[in-house]
Design a protein that fits this description.
Radius of gyration of chain B: 20 Å
Strand order of the largest sheet of chain A: 1-4-5-8
Number of strands of chain A: 10
Shape of chain B: globular
Strand content of chain A: 5-15%
Number of helices of chain A: 16
Distance between the termini of chain A: 44 Å
CATH superfamily of the largest domain in chain B: Butyryl-CoA Dehydrogenase, subunit A, domain 3
Largest sheet of chain A: 4 strands, mixed
Number of strands of chain B: 8
Structural class of chain A: alpha+beta
Structural class of chain B: alpha+beta
Radius of gyration of chain A: 23 Å
Order of helices and strands of chain B: HHHHHHEEEEEHEHEEHHHHH
Helix content of chain B: 40-55%
Number of domains of chain B: 3
Largest interface: A-B, 75 and 71 residues
CATH topology of the largest domain in chain B: Butyryl-CoA Dehydrogenase, subunit A, domain 3
CATH superfamily of the largest domain in chain A: Butyryl-CoA Dehydrogenase, subunit A, domain 3
Oligomer: heterodimer
Shape of chain A: globular
CATH topology of the largest domain in chain A: Butyryl-CoA Dehydrogenase, subunit A, domain 3
CATH class of the largest domain in chain B: Mainly Alpha
CATH architecture of the largest domain in chain B: Up-down Bundle
Number of domains of chain A: 3
Order of helices and strands of chain A: HHHHHHHEEEEHEEEEHEEHHHHHHH
Strand content of chain B: 5-15%
């Protein structure tokens, strides 16, 4: 029997093939005996060719979003980031609302909201460029804003006019007034983490949050954990199952305002890093939600979550990229000043090559998230430029959105099925798999670069890595979370294989 | 059965393990910050009563004449409890052992032995040149010799802070450097800014600015001390990494046996098992490296091995802790299992001396 001192019990034999995916079908291997790798240069170029179809404003918006975020990070985030990290380390309930209010004129909280609803009308690429810049200031602040946008995108994906008018526009207007409202997304549960993010594992997951259908709505019971913005968000997109025996087909998204009766915030987590982004447990006890709070129909959460992840994993890679960039900037500044017995440190070959390697890693991580964002935006642009969507968003007067007749039509089975078909057409399985692959690659690459670069810089700087002028140690702690949230990198790798295998032909 | 220690050191390992479980684990872990927690005097005092603080001294002084291999085992086991208190013991033992053969400090040892069981026992701290960034400060401490006296100017980091020490062993470098043994009271007013980082909550370092600091003849020691001190420090800090990594690895294995994902224990996932095996491999490699460096006969080769042991244990220890977080997922990043603290501690220990060898960086 095998034993070692690090295990409490004799070790079981190495696990057999217990992959939840099962065996890969032989049909997916070509006759020549090799699998065709999906990402040929031609197919990647295709994204850039398609990008030509994007409006010119799409590209100017990237630069504009990056500029706004850089200014905000330099002016407001960087100067207080280390002190804020320490303060929240002592009191995890503290949240810097003042910083959020200062961000209002920069319009970060309306980035993904269509212009027709008073938002900025941006897409994934602008979001990713923005969070990279914010992460250079502080990983936690980037996450707060990134998670907010992810929550909003979950609320918007159904194109429900009532939700758009009542909650999405209200969010944009609150920001214009200088009092931003935050959103969050709640999927992870205490006993179901990694497996809950993937539709293939949902039925095997130990799900504990259920919605019971009543005559006029739903009653939710359960708990969600590790929810970013959990203690500060006003609205949450919450995933819950309707049928314990058929999780996948009843997995649905609900829009939950935090002032709903039966909603409460449980433990606020004490974390290793990203402390300025509050993480909390959410508790639902006999919480009644009217039918209008169901987003996009029953049993559609798995598809929505897949689309959402295709859009959100890229920006997570961008956060890792931003943290790596900050660490590298610190190293360059420090090495230029630092004198050694042989002159300035920056003049040593070892340091020069380390800087070169890190620059390469960061550029690769950025290229990965740009490719992922372009692929994702292709899907969203396809939807947003559909005549019927344009008509719905642009031609109907605002006051009509809450008209009972419009609501009745929008909530009808026909309308929901129509939108569902449109989504499925814009994001067919193959395209979604490829987009999801690129997003996963961007997340794994960016988060790994974040941890590796900041860790390496800290090793070089030694005790100076904790100097608040060069908060490299904080970058490293912040970066570690990017390897965990939105599914651990290991779970992401399984998804990557699965999505890649789907495109073999 | 403990298969990692030979028969001679096994009783010490077991004693230290019991001590770590009783006095350190659960008592001082997860202390958020020094301001909140204070210095872990309770654990240090209990260690004094157990005879750990006088370990390297000879039996006449109440010690056990512990060599570096035994001290490394002791520190490793203490670090399985928590890295912070283990690092405090490591600094004290490294300094004490480096001074053990210096006759001039015999009265100091007698005082140490007399106060080793106090509520606030006699501790020796270490002040090393800080790799100062400021362009108007000397990167290498400047030393002027006049007769037997020395005048020192430079930036140092004192581990732990002088306020908890009775004496501080100040060294101006590793090779051809000057060692001073200074009363902590004398240098307390010279403590400046310090950036301890977020790890090692229980182990307060302090910045020390010496400007034309005059050391008298009786404070100046023989020049062989710094090399011994650096070797001891590197081996014992590598042992802190080792103990920290052992505990993180054990926690990850235990968690993987309990946590269910996709309908089965996560240890039954090949990928999780691969990570756990990698962590164990790294930890076992650390054991080999630390044992080898601790057991090597004194000399230049032993110093090089100690440096490599510290560097390797630093990077491997960090990797093991990061992998442990990854195994635990969200729970690893939160306070619950103590893994995030072990990871922060690993980073802070790694940064204490810097893991990039000085000759690679160009002779700081």
């Amino acid at each position: 029997m095998k034993t070692n001192s690090f295990s409490v019990a004799p070790l079981p034999e190495y696990p057999p093939n217990t992959s939840p995916l099962g065996a890969i079908e032989p049909a997916r291997i070509t006759q020549s005996g090799t699998a065709r790798f999906p990402f040929t240069a031609g197919e990647i170029m295709n994204h850039f060719r398609l990008a030509k179809r994007f409006p010119a404003s799409y590209f100017t918006m990237v630069d504009e979003a990056r500029g706004r975020a850089r200014e905000f990070a330099e002016k407001y985030i960087k100067p207080g980031a280390v002190e804020l990290d320490k303060k929240i380390g002592r009191d995890p309930k503290y949240f810097d609302w003042e910083l959020i209010r200062k961000a209002a004129p920069y319009r970060f909280f309306s980035m993904l909201i269509p212009r027709e609803f008073d938002g900025m009308g941006c897409y994934s690429l602008q979001m990713a460029a923005m969070v990279e810049e914010l992460a250079v200031g502080c990983g936690g602040s980037a996450t707060t804003i990134g998670v907010h946008s992810a929550g909003i995108s979950c609320g918007m994906v159904s194109l429900d006019p009532q939700i758009l008018e009542k909650y999405i526009r209200a969010t944009a207007q609150a920001e214009i007034r200088g009092e931003p409202i935050l959103w969050g997304g709640a999927v992870t549960e205490p006993a179901a983490g990694t497996d809950i993010w993937d539709e293939d594992f949902l039925d095997q997951g130990n799900i504990g949050t259920f919605a019971k259908k009543t005559s006029d709505g739903y009653v939710l019971n359960g708990r969600k954990c590790f929810i970013s913005n959990g203690s500060v968000a006003k609205y949450f997109a919450v995933a819950a199952a309707l049928d314990p025996k058929n999780i996948l087909d009843s997995w649905s998204i609900f829009l939950v305002p935090s002032d709903t009766k039966g909603f409460s915030v449980g433990r606020i987590e004490r974390k290793m890093g990203q402390k300025s982004s509050p993480t909390a447990e959410l508790i639902f006890e006999d919480m009644f939600l009217p039918r209008e709070m169901l987003v996009g129909g029953e049993g559609r959460a798995a598809r929505f979550v897949t689309i959402y992840l295709a859009g959100s994993r890229g920006p997570v890679g961008a956060i890792g990229t931003g943290l790596a960039r900050r660490a590298l900037e610190c190293l360059v500044y420090w090495a230029k000043q630092k004198k050694t017995g042989r002159g300035r440190l920056i003049d040593q070959q070892t340091i020069q090559l380390v800087i070169a390697r890190m620059t390469k890693e960061i550029e690769e991580a950025r290229a990965a998230y740009v490719a992922a964002a372009l692929a994702c935006d292709e899907i969203f642009l396809h939807i947003m430029t559909k005549p019927v969507v344009k008509l719905m968003l642009g031609a109907i007067p605002n006051s009509m959105y809450l008209n009972p007749m419009v609501i009745k039509i929008a909530k009808s089975k026909f309308a929901k099925d129509f939108i569902w078909r449109m989504l499925s057409e814009a994001a067919p399985d193959d395209r979604l798999a490829q987009t999801s692959s690129l997003a996963t690659i961007a997340k794994i690459k960016g988060s790994s670069v974040g941890v590796n670069v900041s860790g390496e810089v800290a090793r070089i700087m030694g005790p100076d890595a904790a100097d608040p002028r060069w908060p490299v140690e904080k970058c490293w702690r912040d970066a570690k979370l990017t390897q965990i949230y939105e599914g651990t990198n290991q779970a992401n790798t399984i998804t990557l294989f699965k999505d890649t295998a789907r495109t073999w032909r | 059965m403990d298969i990692y220690h030979d028969e001679e050191l096994r009783p010490l390992a077991q004693t230290a393990q019991r001590f770590a479980t009783k006095e350190i684990l659960g008592k001082v872990v997860n202390l958020e910050s020094l301001e909140k927690s204070g210095f872990p005097w309770e654990a240090i005092s209990a260690g004094g009563q157990a005879g750990f603080l006088c370990g390297p001294l000879d039996e006449e002084l109440g010690g056990a004449s512990l060599g570096l291999p035994a001290m490394a085992v002791l520190i490793e086991k203490l670090a399985e409890g928590a890295a912070g208190p283990a690092a405090i013991f490591a600094m004290h033992l490294a300094a004490t052992a480096a001074l053990a053969s210096v006759d001039a400090v015999r009265p100091l040892f007698e005082e140490m032995a007399a106060h080793s069981t106090d509520a606030q026992p006699f501790l020796v701290g270490v002040a090393l040149p800080r790799t100062a960034v400021s362009i108007d400060r000397p990167a290498v401490p400047e030393v002027v010799e006049e007769g037997g006296d020395l005048t020192v100017t430079g930036d140092f980091v004192c581990l732990p802070a002088p306020e908890v020490c009775h004496r501080v062993l100040v060294v101006t470098g590793e090779k051809d450097a000057h060692p001073l043994i200074v009363d902590a009271e004398r240098i307390k007013p010279l403590v400046g800014e310090v950036y301890p980082g977020s790890g090692l909550d229980e182990f307060p370092p302090a910045g020390l600015k010496l400007d034309d600091f005059k050391a008298s003849d009786d404070e100046v020691l023989e020049k062989s001390v710094p090399a011994r001190l650096y070797r001891n420090l590197r081996v014992l800090l590598a042992a802190v990494h080792l103990g920290n990594a052992c505990a993180a690895t054990r926690t990850a294995w235990e968690y993987a046996e309990e946590r269910i994902q996709t309908g089965r224990k996560i240890i039954e996932h090949q990928e999780v098992r691969r990570i756990l095996e990698n962590m164990t491999e790294l930890t076992e490699a650390m054991i080999g490296t630390v044992r080898l460096a601790a057991g090597a006969p004194e000399g230049e080769a032993a110093s090089d091995m100690a440096r490599r042991a510290y560097t390797f244990s630093g990077t491997a220890g960090e990797q093991v802790c990061l992998d442990a977080i990854q195994t635990l997922g969200g729970y690893g990043y939160m306070k619950d299992y103590g893994i995030e603290k072990r990871t922060r501690d690993a980073k802070s220990i790694q940064c204490l001396l810097g893991t990039y060898p000085e000759d690679i960086l160009g002779g700081i």
